[in-house]
Amino acid sequence: MTDRFERLFDRAEAILEGRQNGLGMPILRHLAFRRYGPALLSLACRMTQKGTRFEWGRICRASSAAGMMYRAYRIGEINAAQNLAMTRFNMGDMQGYRHWMHRAAKAGDTNAAYELKLFEIRMPHPLARRLRRLRSYRRDGS
Fold this sequence. Notes:
Helix content is 62%, strand content 0%. By secondary structure, the chain is mainly alpha-helical. The longest helix is centred in the N-terminal third of the chain and has 15 residues, at 2-16.
């Protein structure tokens, strides 16, 4: 069953990236309804590309971006907690950012554990400029 879900997910991503013809969002919604973790994350990330609270929603609503990311985390998707943390950072919620970074590190995400050890509240990506949390890139590339 998961091979079928993986094939459908790859096809939906290819359609949404413009490499194939078809409709990708209905495929993603179908897979999210079937609780396929990567589809839940992909659909939630597409809903929160602008980073506003209105698009974020509440964790208790299954159809909101927050609800989809939380359900992916509960299923055991590796990157879900870190996605929740970065979305919280992009919204300016530092307490939520730290909380979800802790959960990501506990879930076994080594990248999140490293970021939590550093715990930087200033990031080099462009969205941090809007939050007044911009820093320049370091010489080592991070």
